[in-house]
Amino acid sequence: MIKILAVDDDKGILMLIKNVLEKEGYTVTVLSDPLEAVHVNLQEYQLILLDVMMPGKDGFAFCYEIRGQVDCPILFLTAKTEEADLMQGLGLGGDDYITKPFGIGELRARVSAHLRRENRERKHAVSVGGVCFQIQAKRVVVNGTELNLTKSEYAICEYLALNHGQVFSKERIYEHVFGYDKESDSSVITEHVKNIRAKFKKEGLDEIETVWGIGYRWK
């Protein structure tokens, strides 16, 4: 049974999420206060929906605190429109965001897409240049050192590397990685690539090339 945790100070939103997702067969736990999460075993959840604007502790701070404890996708629920704020959350370990107000269909599709990604079968290891992708473990190793990539960052790297030389638009990358086609979310890919580059740079690597006006490719 897939378990989902939703944290939002708006109880109406929580009831909507619970009703919609439980009809899809998921078990949904809802919290109106992130401070209540200290009494919850976060590792038992396969996906977390996290509101950004909450009193006491905002969603970004909560994400930063729990990312070391959980390996599941974290999706932000946000009414914010400032891109810099949204991208900050991805840098703290979030995978994606859903902008309020959202429709029932979008909520179902986005949750389903991220859970499908988690269940994709991984079988082997592949080396591309000096970068080793351990597909089963979803790890990237360079010169014997594992890079500390989030799942979303890893998935982007794997997709580009296994298709090295090909150019992919941000929208195409988003659709492949998250399994959901939504053009406006291409900014998520931009921020993830920025974070990936920063981590690769520490190892003396510059593997992802921007093809202006088109997208990205693995060199």
> What structural class is derived from the secondary structure elements?
alpha/beta
The coarse overall form would be globular
The CATH topology of the largest domain is Rossmann fold
* Weakly predicted, low-confidence segments: none
CA-to-CA gap between the ends? 41 Å
What does this protein structure show overall?
- The chain is an alpha/beta fold and 219 residues long.
- It has two domains: 3-118, Rossmann fold (3-Layer(aba) Sandwich), CATH 3.40.50.2300; 125-218, Winged helix-like DNA-binding domain superfamily/Winged helix DNA-binding domain (Arc Repressor Mutant, subunit A, Orthogonal Bundle), CATH 1.10.10.10.
- It is 37% helix and 21% strand.
- It is built from seven helices and eleven strands.
- The strands form three sheets. Strands 2-1-3-4-5 form a five-stranded parallel sheet, with helices on both faces.
- The radius of gyration is 17 Å and the shape is globular.
- The termini are far apart.
Task: Please give a handful of descriptors for the protein shown.
single chain; 219 residues; alpha/beta; Rossmann fold; Arc Repressor Mutant, subunit A; 2 domains; five-stranded parallel β-sheet; four-stranded antiparallel β-sheet; 7 helices; 11 strands
